[in-house]
Amino acid sequence: MPNLRTSVTLFLLLAAQISFWTPGVSYEHFLTLSGYLAINFMSITMVLATWPAWLESPLGGLDSMYKLHKWTGILAVVFALTHWLTEMADDALETLFGSDRSLKEADFSGLLDNLQDGAEDLGEPGLYLLLFLVAITLTRWVPYYYWRYLHRVMPVIYLVLATHALLLAPLKWWQQPIGLLMALLIAAGAVASLQSLTGQIGRSRRYRGLVQAVRQTSANITEVVCDMGKRWPGHQAGQFALVTFDRIEGAHPFSLSSADNDSGQLSFHIKALGDYTRKLPRKLRSGQAVTLEGPYGRFDPDSGRKNAQQIWVAGGIGITPFLAALEKRLTNAERKQPAITLHYCTAVATSDTMVTRLRELTEQLPEISLHIHDSSQGQRLAVNQLQIHDSRVDVWFCGPQSLANALRSGLKQQPISLRFHQESFKFR
After folding, report:
1. H, E, C per residue of the chain
2. How far is CA 381 from CA 79, 114, 258, 406, in A?
3. pLDDT confidence bin for 112, thresholds 50/70/90
4. Rg (CA), the chain
5. Average pLDDT over residues 229-239
6. C or N: which end of the chain has fewer Cβ atoms within 10 Å?
7. pTM
8. Is the pLDDT confidence value at 116 over 70?
9. Over the stretch 316-367, which tens digit does the pLDDT of each residue have?
């Protein structure tokens, strides 16, 4: 289910579109309203797929933008399916609710008539392809490697359905605000589709560099150090980049585990969570080309509310953004920094190199209180171990979703003003 931010944004988008609608009850009203909402939400989905930088701040980062992209896509499919079912039940609905001739599709002649017939014929197969692509995206039946190529067909499907909507919309809409809104959204969606088809999405934020070092720090974690030179624009602690080591495999999101030091050198700690990441230690070598897109993200552990207790919680590889934040604090040691309680949950503390690194950093940062939770010793982090002592609490979390859910549930029972910050890397 969408979170509160996404739900509110979806409601506002729906309300804005409905505000241009002239209410009525007829077969044509149901048909055109469902089609209008379907193509509008498809257009918004296409625009969000380009990851416009100007939307990152108001939407709360790229991960939040993707969640909205996912749900606008789901709503588009729901309304498109409703549109199709309404058309299939035209006789029954006309008998029940009557007909409104003013909402009949535009009647063209000549070339436009032929285009209209073609657009009508392509609408149904376009819907089937859309349903198929959305289904494999949500169910994850297809491995990422193949899915990313299939997903590239989406802009073509959109352009077909946009043509269907433009040619079959009621003629009187084009003299009304509702037609202007739909036309503007379709124009934006068409531009976004062309950007996607020509590989322009994210191009201005891509930087080429070299892999400087590859170190397997534990059985399932690989540290990769990249030298991006002076081209890299710099990053904030807590941000991530879309990293391409292999053009065929494509880009994958990884958190930056080092603070920016103006040298262009940065590092990632990558956990073996699938076939691709398991093969990285064998495939990567020093001197190999790498492409980074970014930096992205609004997960800044040092940007909490003033006069609020700051608690950082990391689970496993989720410690990487906090490593960067700790390094950043060391480079600004002369500044007064707020106290932080850092909880790190690990499977086996004795063999976890992250524990050693954390202790090295926190020993130099007296304002950081470090707590290690070793699950091999039965140490499971719970809300009562967070050491809450203030009425205002900011929790910065990066780790397994199950742990996030448990902490959120427990924190809701506490009489505190809570802000729970978390980013998601589920990009499909």
Report:
1. CCCHHHHHHHHHHHHHHHCCCCCCCCHHHHHHHHHHHHHHHHHHHHHHHCCCHHHHHHHCCHHHHHHHHHHHHHHHHHHHHHHHHHHHCHHHHHHHHCCCHHHCECCCCCHHHHHHHHHHHHHHHHHHHHHHHHHHHHHCCCCHHHHHHHHHHHHHHHHHHHHHHHHHCEHHHHHCHHHHHHHHHHHHHHHHHHHHHCCCCCHHHEEEEEEEEEEEEECCEEEEEEECHHHCCCCCCCCEEEEECCCCCCCEEEEECCCCCCCCEEEEEEECCCHHHHHHHHHCCCCCEEEEEEEECCCCCCCCCCCCEEEEEEEHHHHHHHHHHHHHHHHCCCCCCCCEEEEEEECCHHHCHHHHHHHHHHCCCCCEEEEEEEHHHCCCCCHHHCCCCCCEEEEEEECCHHHHHHHHHHHCCCCCEEEEEECCCCCC
2. 43, 66, 26, 9
3. low
4. 25
5. 90
6. N
7. 0.85
8. no
9. 999 999 999 999 999 887 778 889 999 999 988 888 889 999 999 999 999 9
* Residue 260 to residues 116, 122, 211, 247, 354, Cα–Cα distance (Å): 55, 51, 17, 26, 19
> What are 381-419's pLDDT values in tens digits?
999 999 899 999 999 999 998 999 999 999 999 999 999
In the numeric block, which tokens belong to residue 244?
């391409």
